[in-house]
Amino acid sequence: MQKIVLAFVLSITYLFVSCNSIDSKSIENTPNIKVFIRIGNLNQDSIYFEYSINNIQKDSLIFKFPKVIPGAYRINNSSKYILHLRCFDSNSKKLKYKKLDDNSYLIFKSKSLKTIRYYVKNSDITDVYEILTKLIVTDSFCLINPISVIGYFDEFKEVTYSLKIEKPTFFFTNYKTSNNTMLAPIDSFIFNSYFDLVENPLLYGKLDTNSLFNYDASISVYSDNKIITSQLLKSWIKPLMGVLTNYTSVTRNKTTPYRFNFIFTDKVESVSALEQRNASTYCLKANWDTLFLKRRIQHMISHEFLHVITPIGFHSNVYNTEMFSGYSSRHLWLYEGVVEYLSLKARLDAEVYTPKSFIIALSHLNSLNMALDKCNGESILKLSEHILSKDDSACFNKFYYKGALLAFLLDYSISKCSEGSDDLVKSLNRYIKQNGKVFNEKEFINDFLLSTCLKEIDLDISDEELSKKLRETVNMLGYDMTDKKVFKISDISHGFYLKDYYVKDGTYVLSFDNKNSPIKDKHITVLKINNENPTELMILNHIIYPPNKKSINIEYLYNNKRKIINLEPRQQGMLTEINNVIIIDTLTSEMQECVKWFFIRN
Q: 222 with 203: CB under 8 angstroms?
């Protein structure tokens, strides 16, 4: 076992006092908490954690893991992945504890507590939620989300946390360490508090990293196929960063660089992302068409980055008091809906979207919202307040779809009544400057409206009325959402569905499950791929991970007969039927004013 030797944790009383002015007796009486994680063995199904703890002055303590992970909006049952928890005194004698619930452990005789040990079960590589919210270790990368795997004591959340991670020497992370070399077998980190610790997910591996120098941010990529690079992502992200930085000027933590962490693997069954104060992490499939991947990336990074505004930088007193323990806020429409809308508006302001593309995106949201017909009768405020008690999570997307549409109407109304001098972003940032970053749960909506030129807004408008209001508003901006329906395509991927391949007598033998192909389920001996001798790298880049929809030419042997086939990839994607959007040729003077106030930035 690797022993940890780090000086640690000052009490809150001394947080603002120079270390030089603290006498040795004070330091000796200060609680010490150090965390050690071993991820050196990549083949283990669980990861070892150890805490070294000194100077506890309480007879009993409750050791906890968060019941709710911020941004996930669901109950976190840590007992399913925290294994073999044990507590020891300085003589390595076990201390008794009582498990209070799935996330809490009451430790008796805690004045004698010196060590806590446990294992964390490795996450399921196919489950994107587990990868992002817990801990995943593979032979290629490792992602640690501290908020779910590192516990805390209520009494000591504000103290400094020391963290050491034993890892393979070929693994490195883009987060700063106290090591002098990235090849060191142990990384060391210092965090000012538990809150600081959990805002910093750690991505490890042979990462491809790039910097966004002007915006104090970086991009790190792990990719199964190495086709999606940090340089490519930088070219997609950089055009948005000026607008995103401007939007978050009031709430962003300017002392810590922001990190975009990307994992591209086709082993996951779905795609997702999770935000934290200093980083956001994305897990996506590797074989998407790059055109659609670019659009998805620009959407996702805008959304997750803008969570710096809310709820990370601006939230209700209920959100604040229930951090890690619950969720009963009425304002998911703000935390997810407003952020989803602003991710569209950012692309408009950055000229990544044209005005028509922006309106088409709103039409898409309207169709998605109306499709959730089983949730149409529910109040979005009450649905938010009771989200953790919902057995059926199908209504959760209401906060993204309906919340974003409400945010658009709010943004438009502010722009119109202020004659273009104000908008939703300016209003939010002004409100935060004047009233602080924590608002009153029950009074916020009225207080916020009073800070703008608006009189009222109906957040509990029915979906039918919202759709009608949306079409009227879009019309005032010079567009018509017609009754005609068209299909919008998103998330396109291509695949040849290679079932198996191996080398026999120096040649490659492949088997496909490509629908309607004459070589389906046959083991063929490949002679040429695109008129070149086959290699494993060619199979990887042209068959397993095709970056686009190009066909491949294969010359092969089957039953001693030489044949040639042009193999087309199968295309998969999501189709959504939306109202067609057309430009109105002739605008009234009022419509012209609305267009100027909303689309032309002051």
A: yes
Distance, first Cα to last Cα, the chain:
61
Helix (H) or strand (E) holding 439: strand 438-439
Q: Is the peptide bond before 518 cis (omega within 30 degrees of 0)?
A: no
What CA–CA distance (Å, rounded) separates 510 from 499? 8
Q: Contact 365/394 with Cβ under 8 angstroms?
A: no
Query: Which 8-state DSSP code applies to residue 544?
Result: I
At a CB cut-off of 8 Å and minimum separation 6, what does 51 contact?
Answer: 33, 34, 35, 36, 115, 116, 117, 151
In the chain, domain spans: 12-124+142-203, 497-568
Pairing of strands 570-583, 479-495: antiparallel
Multiple choice CATH, 12-124+142-203, 2.60.40.3650, 2.30.30.140, 3.60.70.12, 3.20.20.150: 2.60.40.3650
Indicate the range of 73-82, 259-268, 362-371, 510-519 predicted with least confidence: 510-519
CA 237 – CA 219 distance, rounded (Å): 9
For residue 355, give the 3-state DSSP assignment.
Answer: helix
CA-closest candidate to residue 153, choices 19, 253, 55: 55
Pairwise CA distance, residues 126 & 272, whole Å:
12
DSSP SS3 for 248? coil
User: In whole angstroms, what is the distance from residue 456 CA to residue 453 CA?
Assistant: 10
Residues 6+ apart with CB under 8 A from 122: 44, 45, 46, 47, 135, 136, 137
272/491 Cα distance (integer angstroms): 12
Instruction: Give the pLDDT confidence score for residue 7 in this predicted structure.
Output: 32
Kindly state the helix (H) or strand (E) to which residue 592 belongs, with its residue range.
helix 589-599
183 backbone dihedrals φ, ψ, rounded to 5°: -85, 0
Q: φ, ψ for residue 194 (rounded to 5)?
A: -65, -35
User: Any idea what DSSP says for residue 89?
Assistant: -
109, with CB counted inside 10 A (0-12, 13-18, 19+), is middle
- Are 55 and 30 in contact by the 8 Å Cβ rule? The answer is yes
**C-beta separation of 167 from 41 below 8 A:** no
> Does the CA dihedral 284-286-289-295 come out positive or negative?
positive
CA-nearest of 267, 323, 430 to 67 is 323
Written as six digits, the tokens of 151 are 């516990």
Tell me whether strands 82-88 and 217-223 are parallel, antiparallel or unpaired.
unpaired
Residues 569-597 have pLDDT tens digits of 877 777 889 999 999 999 999 999 999 99
The Cα–Cα gap between 219 and 204 comes to 13
* DSSP string covering 202-217: EEEES-EEEEEGGGTE
Contacts of 398 (CB under 8 A, 6+ apart): 369, 372, 375, 378, 380, 383
- For residue 181, the model assigns a pLDDT of 60
Q: Could you tell me if 274 and 132 are in contact, meaning their C-beta atoms sit under 8 angstroms apart? A: yes
State pTM to two decimals.
Answer: 0.87
pLDDT tens, position by position, 341-394:
999 999 999 999 999 999 999 999 999 999 887 777 778 888 888 887 765 566
**Phi, psi (degrees; rounded to nearest 5) at 500:** -165, 150
- DSSP E strands: which ranges in 295-370? 315-316
